[in-house]
Amino acid sequence: MELKLASLAYSSCVVNVQTCKILFSPSVAARGKNGRSRLIRNIASNNSTKPLQAKQRRSANYHPSIWNPELIESFTTDYTYELYAGRLEKLKQEAKELFASTKGSYDRLKLIDSLQRLGVAYHFEQEIEEAVNLLTKDDNTIKDLNETAFHFRILREHGHSISTEVFDKFKNVDGRFDESLEADITGLLSLFEASFLGSVEEEDVLEEAKSFSTKHLNDYLLGKLETNILTEKLQQSLHIP
């Protein structure tokens, strides 16, 4: 009870310094229950005579936007749909023909990945779905690290189930990724990109894949004095997976 009174008294100091002095004076401390009651009533009375005033918020006075519909429509561009529609449709048709003529699994993977990276995959959703379905039926087990990780990533990105056990053949007797893979830079990059597509249950496996590939890719970059297409791709992938 005394603690509550002390807390109340301390709060009142902000409002009325004189009341605070009275409350903590020795004579008041010696008073009994009735004295404390009178003090609390006095404090309440003091506080009630000074109603809190709400602070008025200033108006932001924002200026109206200059970007009205008339201004936006006034901008012109040479790249109108009417002028380039024919070329666009021709390119789309050529890409669809590529899907039909591409037979190998790895070539299908590269085609899908290229369209996704270019940001035009939405034009070919049906063709990509059909190609991915063909990849799920691929029974070719003789794949290097690059193709295995590539295959794993594309299937996972499109919602298909594929086990992390596909990476077991690249591990040594201790169950860790074989150090001989350090020279396979393309394969390590594919493994790095695939390591982000796992579930909670697979966290250990894919975290190991990420750690292993990151280390060796960074080591490779440190040993390169000149920049080329591969090093630029590695730097970009490591910076923004």
TrEMBL record:
Domain Terpene synthase N-terminal, chain residue ranges per copy: 67-236
Source organism superkingdom: Eukaryota
GO biological processes: terpenoid biosynthetic process
Recorded GO MF terms: terpene synthase activity
Keyword set includes Membrane: no
Keyword Secreted: no
Keywords: Lyase, Magnesium
PANTHER family named among the record's database cross-references: OS04G0344100 PROTEIN-RELATED (PTHR31225), TERPENE SYNTHASE 9-RELATED (PTHR31225:SF98)
Protein name in UniProt: Terpene synthase
Organism: Citrus limon (Lemon)
